[in-house]
Amino acid sequence: GYNYGAGEKERLHKIIRCSMLLVVAIMTAGTLAALVFPQQIFAVFIDDPALIGPGSTALRIISLGFIVSTVSVVYAGLFEALGCGKKSLLISLIRQIVIIIPLGFILSRIWGPVGIWVCFPIAEFLAAGMARIMVKKQNV
Fold first, then answer.
1. What are φ and ψ of residue 82, in 5° steps?
2. How many separate domains does the chain show?
3. Most CB atoms within 10 A, among 50, 58, 104, 131?
4. Residue 137 near residue 117, CB atoms below 8 Å
5. What is the DSSP letter of 67?
6. Contact of 116 with 107, CB cutoff 8 Å
7. What pLDDT does residue 8 have?
8. Is the whole model's pTM more than 0.70, yes or no?
9. How confident is the model over 47-73, as pLDDT tens digits?
């Protein structure tokens, strides 16, 4: 927020790039772990074998949106730093409610439970795109 207010756009862009790289690294590790060890991760939270299989499938599908979620997470934080809390909230609402609920309802009718899990990465991609548009309009 300070750099934006001071007109230090290059410094602000450097911070955004650094933040993106750090979050991408963390989310890449999470994605790889979820794809390679989904049963072990899911087993930490529940020990019912009947749920570990479907839970592992859900984790693998949902993890496909982890890396792209970097964009909306960093940009939501950027808007918070700029004092634009409503825009930050809008990004979160788009991800978690506006897209996931109706899309989950529709895709569950087509693919059953898998349709619900598929809507999570789709929501991440759409929210990232919308967040990027919002940042461009903010002239950051």
1. -85, 0
2. 1
3. 131
4. no
5. T
6. yes
7. 87
8. yes
9. 888 899 999 999 999 999 999 999 999
